[in-house]
Structure formats: C-alpha cells, structure tokens
Amino acid sequence: MVSNEFLLIEKIKNILGKVSKSEVIIGIGDDASVLDIGLEKDFLLFCSDSIVDGKHFVFNIPEKSLIGRKAIGVVLSDIAAMGGYPLYVTLDIGIPGYVNEGDIEEIIDGMNFLLELFSVDVVGGDVVSSDVLYLSLSCIGKVEKKNLVKRSGAKKLDKIWVSGPLGGSIYGRHLMVSPRIPEARFLVQNFSPTAMIDVSDGLVADLYHILEDSCCIGQIDVEAIPVHKDAKSIDEALYMGEDFELLFCLSEEDSKRLESNMSNLPYKFYKIGEVTDSGSVGLYVKDGSSRYPILPKGFRHF
Ligand code: ADP
Ligand code: MG
Question: Nearest residue CA, atom 16 of ligand 1?
C-alpha cells in the first residue's frame, strides 16, 4: 500500500522528472507545469486533476451535477494558483456498472457552469469502463510571463494571505468549487505575489509547500485565520483542506497597499501571518502570547 502521496510524487520526480527540453520552465512540483513554447508574452500552463468516487465525492448524492462542477473546479483552481487563466480541457471518464446514462448526463451538465463562466472549451477526452466512477481533467491555460507566480518565491518579511474562509468544506462545500481565477488575476495584475498555491490539502500542508519550495520559516496567527462558518473547530481550518482558496505571499509594501485598498475591492483577502526568516524551513503558530511549531498533517489521498 502507498501511504504518502508526497513521497510518491518525489519518487516519480526522481525516476521520470528529468526533462529533455529547455522549454520546460517548471515541471513536476508546482500547481501546474509552465512551458515556454515560443509565445512572445505568455507561458503555457498545463495540469491535471482527478476525482474518484468514495475519495473526493460520493456518487450517491441527489444533485449529481455537483460532481461535474467539482471535477472542473479543481483543475481550474491549479491554473489560478499560477496567476493564470484556463483555456482548454480534456475530459477522461471512468464509468462503472452502477452509473447510468442519465447520471453521466447530469454530471456532464454540471461542468457547464464553470466552463461557460471562464470560457473554457472541452477539446477532447476519453471514456473507459472502470470499477469506480472517476473524472480526470487535463487543462491548458496561459499566464503572462511577468505574471507567473510559483510556490518558490516567498521572502523574509513577506506577509501571508488567504483569499477566503477555511475549514469544514467536506461537509458539502467541497463540491461547489469556485476556482479563484478572478482573484488570482486581480492579484497578479495589481500586485506582485511572491508565491502562491491553492488550498487543496489544508492550510498547514499547503503553506508548507510554499515554505519548503521557498526555503523559509513562516508564522501564522490563529486569531487572524478566517474560519468558515461550516467549520467545527480551528483545526478544520488548519488541516481539513478542499477549500480551494488562494494562499499567497506579498511583500510588506504590497501588503500595506492591499490592506489600504481592501474596502474598495470586489474581493476579500485575509492577512494570516508572515515569513519570519529564510534559509531553513519551518512553520510556527502564534496563539495569543504563545508560539509553537506546527507540522503538516493535511489531507492524505491514500
Ligand atoms: P495539487 O494539489 O496542486 O493538484 P498535487 O499535490 O496533486 O498538486 O501534485 C503536486 C505536484 O506533483 C504537481 O506538480 C503535479 O503535477 C505533480 N504530480 C502529482 N502526481 C504526479 C504523477 N503521477 N506524475 C507526475 N507528476 C505528478
Ligand atoms: Mg494546487
């Protein structure tokens, strides 16, 4: 049995991750791969995500269209995390015996809302029979070269921000994914985020990805974390995941500017902490007058 998704990805990266083309700006390891295919101003973004019955949704829900919405939402969310916008998807469906044509139609129909909202075209895919229902999406997007945001650029004294309340999503909200593309585009067009990721594994786990890739130490303030009304505890905001909010870092100067403009914005962003040091990796939680280290124990996919 494979018990740790991140170690497995490390292994895959070691065995298969050596790239032969200089066009690969980012391969395995960020929210999407980044390819320089010769466009003057833009990089291509390319990523994939799958959702599986029993793991990421349960088939036995009345509103099956939400399964389709989630499948599209999670893959678009990774494009947003790079600062980009989506263009095309391909759709692979694994269909088991317990699913009928009407169900599939409803699921596919549920994809239309986000596809139309963000003008994304379905340009291919595959249908296979399978023991369990799954939907696997690949997505191509673009980002202006100057607007690309990686996980790896956080710097000492940056502030840590999140784009919405966290926690409790698995009680239902996780199906209604709203990829934060407008928010990401607003940020890259008006500020210079130094690092960004979407919160899929949980705030602590995903912040660790930024801190590891940026080789930094972070601190989050429990009292500043926006806890969603669906959450039953602060722990759910820290660890539950599937929030699909943007988690990003901004310089002190950008942070001040964002704070002073916040009341005029169509979006709300929450400052939850700061990067306190660089050169090594760690995360601390400030809770009132106490401060303690915290380790990642986010959502594991196996
Ligand atoms: P996210 O939660 O943002 O979708 P993941 O944790 O699934 O990201 O993946 C992290 C990184 O590892 C991504 O860059 C992804 O492309 C890469 N990755 C995940 N699974 C595989 C795989 N089976 N083969 C190659 N790369 C993978
Ligand atoms: Mg992601």
Answer: 28
